[in-house]
Structure formats: structure tokens, C-alpha cells
Specification:
Elements lengths: L2 H12 L13 E5 L2 E4 L4 E4 L2 H4 L8 H13 L11 H13 L6 E6 L2 H16 L3 E5 L8 H6 L17 E4 L19 H11 L8 E6 L15 H12 L2 E5 L23 E4 L10 E6 L19 H16 L2 H22 L3 E7 L2 E6 L10 H13 L2 E2 L1 E3 L3 E4 L7 H19 L15
Helix pairs in contact: 3-9, 4-9, 10-12, 11-12
The protein binds pyridoxal-5'-phosphate.
Length: 447
């Protein structure tokens, strides 16, 4: 039996099913740059980057060196009681990287999820209001606060309620599958008018909204890029009504979309930026960077975690920022992203399965449909394409049912990206020709 199969078989008896969304039995042994090697020695080109985490590539030598040096000095001393220098240096960096020229503070955590819980706490404390607004199909994480903000799949609600009270979801403008049946751009700002009349003029008094939490590009919803007016409109609304605009960049941050933070595409200045995932190249770390007065609204010990702001993770984050700057990975993401987008759009001319290609930088969604008119999601076909790519040595998963998720490490070599795109092209053809059997779907759960 292959080692992968053996390990996966054991995993299935020991680890709870809710801990994973399974695609294929890949057991990682090593990674470098944009390649991953499994325990059976097979090498893959990675189009997932560990879910938009490994932006600097796997085991970047500078990041590994920073981690090793700090681990040798001391692995942890909790910032809940003492101080360490990396925490302060990293906070300074994050303050200068984020939009907005005003005094800021930085609140550290361990995961995107706990960062979003922090958002709810600080927004309520600062505004003295309880209502927090987020969007349908958003994903904000798995702790109770983050789950309450999320609205992605019934499995993240089922059996676990009740959730936090006073959290409301409103539609996010998805111009490919418009909830209001309109076509962009002829709809202009019809969706905002609908949101206002259905929510803010009925169940959600704007003067009671503490915060609006928004992914500037919805990630797990299938890479949904909002129309140009939307984020400026949210900023205007929040300013008018004294609500906080929370820019949730856990998936989009650190160069993923061709900017340091995706919100920069719209020139909007948020009150709070939420970051996680790529911040420390895979070490557990998250941060809220916010107007100082907001993060001064709670008193000690209202918001501390023993291992938050761990020095090894902070050292990794400082090295990550240096690598992104020095290797010009933000620019690389924009350039390679454009190249990939153009190639995928050309594939769309040849593959009826492709309904839409969208995204920014190296964060691209390829939405597969059974029929271009009805836009019915081709969920099984998307899973089969991922399986075929896996067989051919390319790591690709689908989310939002039908959307292929293309988010490689930003360091991916041009030749590897080219190769991986060719493999997607071939796999689409093979799925369209019925060459990938239904049997492969057994064990594939998928988002
Ligand atoms: C936009 C967004 N927010 C929050 C999270 C949750 O982050 P974590 O899994 O680190 O708690 C994710 C993870 O996929 C995400 O994509």
C-alpha cells in the first residue's frame, strides 16, 4: 500500500470529519517554492498555496531562517504579561502597510477566525451598538463569532446554533449570478437600492449598525469581485451613519490580488483591516490593524490569548514582509495574474464548461457551468477537473461548488504556471469528453 493511503486511512479513524474538506489523498512531505512533494515521492505544482497562505512559497529560506533563529532564542513568552521586540516591530510594519494616515494600533491573534471575533468585540465596545452586518456567501472562519458572521453553507450552521445575536447578512453584488436578476452594467446601482430598501429601511436601522464586515473580493464564495461603486458606497454609508467599515483581507491580503491589500483597488480607507493566512507564511498569526481609538475601547484583560503574537510567528511575518517587498511579489502577482487570466479567458472560447473567469492578481476563480444560459453550477465536473489535475501533478481545488480556485504561491515560476494552466486545459477537455469516471467523486467532499 502506498504510504499516502496508509496515513489517510489512519487519519480517517482519528481526525473528526468536520476538520477537513477532502479532495484527494495527498499527504505532504515537503514543499519548496510552488512545488509540493508527497510521502510517496510524487511532485506537484501547487495552485492552492495552502489556501492562500504560502504567498512567499513553501519553506522560503529567509522565512525558515527567521523562524529558526527566533526558535533558538526563545519559542514563546506570552505577550499577555511580558513584552517582546518582534511584536512591536511587526506592528510598526503593519501600521505603515495598511491604508489610512491616522494613529493606529494592532491587535494580534492566532487565526483569521479569532481576529474576526475581535472585530465584533471592539466594534460593539467602540460604538456602543450591537448590530453587525456581513454578507451572504461570506466566509469569516470557524469560531462562534466568525461562524456567526459567515453565511457560506448550511453545514456551517447545522446543529451548532444558537449563534451570536444581532448579526445580519445582506446580499453581496455578484455580477455573474445577480441575486436581483439584473445584468451589469445596465443595472447601475440597482443592487444598492435593493439592499437599502430591503434591509436598512426595514429591519436594520443604520444608526444601530456597529460595523459592516466585508471581504473586498469574496473568496470562498468563488472569487466574487464587486462592481466599482460598491466598496466606496459602503464607506459612504458607514461614514454617514457612524458605523465602522471592516475590511476583511484574510484571504486577499499580502499581495494575493496584485496589491498589498485588495481594498486598494477601490481607494477606500477602512476603519479596521483584518489579516491572517499569508501574514506569517503559515505560522499561526492574525492581526487587526485599526484606528487607535477603536482598539482602545476595551479594558484589560478583555481580549488576550496566551499564544497570540508568538515571537516565532512574528519573526516569520517580518521575514515574509521583507520577501514580498524585495522579490516584488505584489507586482509579480499582478503580472502573472493577468497572464493567467488571459489564458483562461482564451480557454473559455474552447470550453463550454467555463461560464466565467474572474479575479485579480493571482486570485482567480473559474466558474464551471452545465449551461451558459442557465448558469447551473457544474459541481461534479469541477471536482473531476480537480481530480484529473491531481493525477497529472497539479494541486487545484474547487469552492463555491463549481469554481476552480487558482491561488498559487506568488513566487511560482512562469514555466510552472504555464504547465499548470496546460494541465487545467487538458483536464477540462477530458472531463468534457466523459473520460473521468464518477468513481473518482467517492471521498471528494468539496466546498
Ligand atoms: C476571508 C476569510 N476569512 C476568514 C477565514 C478564517 O481564517 P482561519 O481559518 O485562519 O481561522 C478564512 C479562511 O479560509 C477566509 O478565507
Amino acid at each position: 500500500m502506498m504510504r499516502s493511503r496508509e496515513i489517510v486511512a489512519k487519519d480517517q479513524t482519528l481526525i473528526p470529519p468536520a476538520f477537513r474538506v477532502s479532495y484527494f489523498p495527498l499527504v505532504v512531505q515537503e514543499g519548496t517554492g510552488a512545488t509540493v512533494t508527497d510521502v510517496d515521492g510524487r511532485v506537484y505544482i501547487d495552485l492552492l498555496a495552502s489556501a492562500a497562505v504560502s504567498n512567499t512559497g513553501h519553506a522560503h529560506p529567509r522565512v525558515v531562517d527567521a523562524i529558526t533563529r527566533q526558535a533558538k532564542a526563545f519559542i514563546h513568552y506570552t505577550p499577555a504579561y511580558m513584552y517582546h521586540e518582534h511584536l512591536v516591530r511587526l506592528a510598526e510594519q503593519l501600521v505603515s502597510l495598511t491604508p489610512g494616515e491616522f494613529p493606529k494600533r494592532v491587535r494580534f491573534g492566532l487565526s483569521g477566525s479569532d481576529a474576526n471575533d475581535g472585530v465584533i468585540k471592539f466594534a460593539r465596545a467602540y460604538t456602543g451598538r450591537q448590530k453587525v452586518v456581513s454578507f451572504f456567501r461570506s466566509y469569516h472562519g470557524s469560531t462562534y463569532g466568525a461562524l456567526s458572521l459567515s453565511a457560506i453553507t448550511p453545514n456551517m450552521r447545522r446543529k451548532m446554533g444558537p449563534f451570536l445575536p444581532e448579526i445580519y447578512h445582506i446580499p453581496f453584488p455578484d455580477c455573474y449570478r445577480c441575486s436581483f436578476g439584473r445584468d451589469y452594467p445596465s443595472c447601475e446601482e440597482f443592487c444598492w437600492e435593493q439592499i437599502e430598501s430591503s434591509y436598512f429601511q426595514t429591519i436594520l436601522p443604520p444608526d444601530e449598525v456597529a460595523a459592516i464586515v466585508v471581504e473586498p473580493i469574496q473568496g470562498d464564495a468563488g472569487i466574487i469581485v464587486p462592481p466599482p461603486f460598491f466598496l466606496p458606497q459602503l464607506r459612504k454609508f458607514c461614514t454617514e451613519h457612524g458605523s465602522l467599515l471592516v475590511d476583511e483581507e484574510i484571504q486577499t491580503g499580502f499581495g494575493r490580488t496584485g496589491k498589498w491589500f485588495a481594498i486598494e483597488y477601490w481607494g477606500v480607507i477602512p476603519d479596521i483591516v483584518v489579516m491572517g493566512k499569508a501574514i506569517a507564511s503559515g505560522m499561526p498569526l492574525s492581526a487587526l490593524v485599526a484606528r487607535a481609538d477603536i482598539l482602545e475601547a476595551l479594558e484589560p484583560p478583555a481580549d488576550l490569548f496566551t499564544c497570540a503574537g508568538n515571537p516565532v510567528a512574528c519573526a516569520a511575518a517580518l521575514a515574509t514582509i521583507e520577501v514580498i517587498r524585495e522579490e516584488r511579489l505584489v507586482e509579480r502577482s499582478a503580472k502573472l495574474g493577468q497572464y493567467a487570466m488571459d489564458r483562461l479567458l482564451k480557454m473559455k472560447d474552447r470550453h463550454q464548461l467555463i461560464g466565467d473567469v474572474r479575479g485579480k492578481g493571482l486570485s482567480i476563480g473559474v466558474d464551471l457551468v452545465k449551461n451558459r444560459q442557465s448558469k447551473e453550477r457544474a459541481v461534479k465536473e469541477a471536482l473531476k477537473v480537480c481530480w484529473r489535475c491531481y493525477e497529472k501533478g497539479v494541486l487545484l481545488i474547487s469552492f463555491s461548488g463549481s469554481v476552480l480556485r487558482i491561488q498559487p504561491p506568488l513566487v511560482i515560476a512562469e514555466g510552472d504556471l504555464e504547465y499548470a494552466l496546460n494541465v487545467i486545459d487538458e483536464s477540462l477537455t477530458e472531463v468534457e469528453k466523459g473520460m473521468v469516471p464518477d468513481a473518482v467523486l467517492e471521498g471528494m467532499v468539496g466546498w
